[in-house]
């Protein structure tokens, strides 16, 4: 017997006949016609090779096989019913759900501490997994449910992926607290005269600041390319290298390293961060709860200048 070939509705009919003791009563309970219930019973008999119910007087009496089946069938149907109810309801206080959030490391430091503080207060059993999402597969992962939501830059995704802008973030320059240029102001010439560290998951390629410099016919000297902003911030704190970095991350990193934040001496578009989720879960209570807390982290967040 192949369970994947079984029709769930057949077991609903089986349970109704068992409980009601007849096809007529079962059809009334299920709001089906008597021929439809009889047809379902016929399919069950073919599947199991057993009559399942035999008529005694005006009642349908279960066979020994039917009596063995009823317990597991009722347990399975009840489990499904509970699961469907739970899927349409979310109680933060009692939930032990795991939320998987796609987020880049530059946003982890901004998002995770306040998110987990809110989760611990409101939903002590809820767990969060922050993962690095491949932007090329972001839509498919959201659609499949392997990601509940994602926070990232603007991405050209289909209309099936919902989005909301969370915050605008300008770029600033990070230097160690006693760097020769730490007291500023810093001109573009001074910026270009420095040795730079770049943080990127890509092995090569320009940053947005390099694109603008190239447009101006200028170029900076990159002495170090690393994978994570946190590592770059530590390098800055211990060397004369300077780092161009989103301001919100620089503010957080300063708590650990005490680096100095200086304005970037050129005008660049601000970097917008967006919250993404799939239309399939747009009204799901659990996903709504998660998105509400993610949005609250950035409520009222502005960047001067």
UniProtKB/TrEMBL annotation:
Belongs to the LysR transcriptional regulatory family. The keyword Transferase does not apply. InterPro entries: LysR-type_TF, LysR_HTH_N, LysR_subst-bd, WH-like_DNA-bd_sf, WH_DNA-bd_sf, YidZ_PBP2. Gene3D superfamilies: Periplasmic binding protein-like II, Winged helix-like DNA-binding domain superfamily/Winged helix DNA-binding domain. Pfam families: HTH_1 (PF00126), LysR_substrate (PF03466). Residues 6-63 form the HTH lysR-type domain. Signal peptide: none annotated. It comes from Aquisalimonas asiatica. The keyword Metal-binding does not apply. GO terms for molecular function: DNA binding; DNA-binding transcription factor activity. This is DNA-binding transcriptional regulator, LysR family. The lineage of its organism: Bacteria, Pseudomonadati, Pseudomonadota, Gammaproteobacteria, Chromatiales. Keywords: DNA-binding, Transcription, Transcription regulation.
């Amino acid at each position: 017997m192949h369970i994947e070939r079984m029709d769930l509705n057949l077991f609903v009919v089986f349970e109704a006949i068992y409980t009601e003791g007849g096809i007529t009563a079962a059809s009334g309970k299920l709001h089906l016609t008597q021929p439809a219930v009889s047809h379902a019973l016929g399919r069950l008999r073919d599947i199991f090779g057993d009559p399942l119910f035999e008529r005694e007087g005006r009642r349908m009496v279960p066979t020994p096989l039917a009596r063995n089946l009823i317990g597991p069938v009722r347990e399975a149907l009840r489990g499904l019913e509970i699961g469907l109810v739970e899927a349409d309801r979310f109680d933060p206080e009692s939930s032990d759900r795991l939320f998987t959030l796609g987020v880049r490391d530059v946003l982890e430091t901004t998002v995770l501490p306040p998110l987990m503080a809110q989760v611990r207060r409101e939903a002590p059993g809820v767990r969060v997994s922050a993962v690095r999402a491949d932007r090329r597969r972001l839509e498919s992962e959201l659609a499949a449910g392997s990601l509940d939501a994602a926070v990232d830059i603007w991405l050209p995704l289909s209309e099936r992926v919902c989005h909301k802008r969370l915050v605008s973030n300008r770029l600033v320059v990070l230097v160690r607290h006693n760097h020769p240029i730490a007291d500023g102001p810093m001109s573009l010439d001074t910026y270009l005269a420095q040795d730079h560290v770049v943080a990127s998951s890509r092995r090569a390629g320009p940053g947005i600041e390099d694109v603008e410099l190239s447009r101006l016919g200028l170029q900076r000297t990159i002495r170090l390319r690393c994978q994570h902003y946190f590592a770059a911030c530590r390098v800055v704190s211990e060397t004369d290298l300077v780092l161009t970095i989103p301001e919100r991350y620089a503010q957080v990193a300063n708590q650990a390293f005490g680096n100095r934040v200086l304005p970037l001496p050129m005008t660049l578009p601000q970097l917008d961060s967006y919250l993404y989720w799939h239309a399939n879960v747009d009204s799901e209570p659990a996903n709504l709860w998660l998105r509400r807390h993610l949005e609250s982290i950035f409520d009222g967040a502005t960047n001067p200048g």
